[in-house]
Amino acid sequence: MLTHDAALDWIARWDRQQEGYLPDREERFTALIDAVEALGRPDPVVIDLGCGPGSLSARLLERLPEATVVSVDADPLLLGLGRAAYPRLTFVAADLRTSGWTGLLGLDGPADVAVSTTALHWISGTELKGVYAELATVLRPGGLLLNGDHLDTEDTTPTLSRLEHTVHERETARTFGTNRPEDWRTWWEAITADPAFAALNQERTTAGADHHGSESHLLSHHVEALKEAGFSEIGTLWQRGNNRLLCAVRALEPAESTA
């Protein structure tokens, strides 16, 4: 049986391997939550897209204990891990690529903000348009999308993109040297070998939840999809190399924008 303490240990190990790719991961979390807090609502309704085991969701609730955080992912093992570790969070099993996923969230009204970190790049550019279009239907006018990820500009500014990669690579080398944390694949091999996860791993295999490549790693993919979905004021709030926090504001309705 998966215990609360064991789940916390596995998530701590997850966080360490993620930091191997993102030495400034906690700084990006802080900037993202600063933006949520800046909405001025002590009890915002937040949707965490591709939440994994709940690392961002847990930090949000720690800073804003009155918030309602709905954490969404399609991976049964990661959801099981998060539910065991963070009983105060609401985890929802849903595939963002499937139309109708917002109907599974159990929302009583519009959400104030949607957040995501290191998750949406798994979704193809075509599917991303559907994700953002459906998200817009449950996000209040003026609400935010905050997406922290490696988003490249190589298709529009190739020299700048090369420099962004260099900045990230050098920071990683300075932080870890030759003592890099375990990688993503090694973490998965270890957790799926743990008997406590046998049932969840079987469910994961059945669901076909494994990832295969980075499908929408270009900043332009996200900007274009967000514009088509009715978001405005799209830009980068925080950046370190090609690691950035993208922000988009759901446009006000015409009557609201002229009121």
UniProtKB/TrEMBL annotation:
Pfam families registered for this protein in UniProt: Methyltransf_25
Domain Methyltransferase intervals: 46-143
GO process terms (BP): methylation
UniProt-listed SUPFAM superfamilies: S-adenosyl-L-methionine-dependent methyltransferases (SSF53335)
GO molecular function, one term: methyltransferase activity
Domain of life: Bacteria
Keywords linked to the UniProt accession: Methyltransferase, Transferase
Protein name, UniProt field: Class I SAM-dependent methyltransferase
Lineage: Bacteria, Bacillati, Actinomycetota, Actinomycetes, Streptosporangiales
